Fold:
Amino acid sequence: GDKISFKYEKKLDKAKINYKISELKQQLSDSDYKITKCYEATIIGNELPYNIETLHEERQKIRDEINRLESML
Structure:
């Protein structure tokens, strides 16, 4: 009759998810030098140039998000 009905389907934008994953992987890559600097400082007995605990937590959050997004695909 006079009734209109809709059925919504949730579709993933795989390209958008892959782009976000690439961005996050680039963030990890961009902070690799900080890990290297901390490692070098440890080897020669100097003070760490970055807070390694904070750095690790930040990088782990990025890894967790990458894993979450990859599981969606």
The chain has a mean pLDDT of 94. Residues 5 and 11 are 19 Å apart (CA to CA).
